[in-house]
Amino acid sequence: MPLTLPDTMKPARDSNPVHAAEVVIPSDCDAARRVQDQIEQLLVAQRACDRDIFCVKLALEEALVNAIKHGNGLDRAKKVHVRYRLAGDRFEVSITDEGPGFDPDDVPDPTALENLERPCGRGLMLMRHYMSRVEYQGRGNTVAMSKTLCPSK
User: Which of the pair, 144 or 123, is modelled with greater confidence?
Assistant: First the structure.
């Protein structure tokens, strides 16, 4: 399903266009993959380097899966709200689920010896590693991430 931009988020008319969109999807992994693919296509079209595309794609996948699985409890009636923006060398995305939220400080450190064989916390760790900034907002059901992109080729 193609994404349509609200009038307030149309690309700017300058040499450094802004690409932005807002989309609402059901709590469904196929819908999440479509959003990921659209964002990847945008990054490729803007000549982002392969490493940055990989970083954004991986962090985005982790955040979307967390919203669908942990936030919305796989309830297809609940929605995931995705807003993203690419302006120059900066990609920004926020993902909001309709779940109760959580405190990221309560998630065990996956690198601690006692947690090495436990699956929890790895996605959050990957998001922090691959993005320039990761913040949780509100009651913890919104994650805002950004990535400063390497200079285009």
Answer: 144
DSSP label at residue 152: P
Q: Cα-flanking dihedrals φ and ψ of residue 144, to 5°?
A: -115, 125
Q: Is residue 10 part of a domain?
A: no
Q: Classify 153 as helix, strand or coil.
A: coil
Residue 8 within a domain: no
- Cα–Cα nearest to 119, from 129, 127, 108, 106: 108
Q: Contact, 25 vs 129, CB < 8 A?
A: no
- Tell me how crowded residue 44 is: count the other CB atoms within 10 A of its CB: 11
Distance, CA of 8 to CA of 76 (rounded, Å) = 29
Given this model, what pLDDT does residue 153 score? Answer: 56
> How many domains, in total, are found in the chain?
1
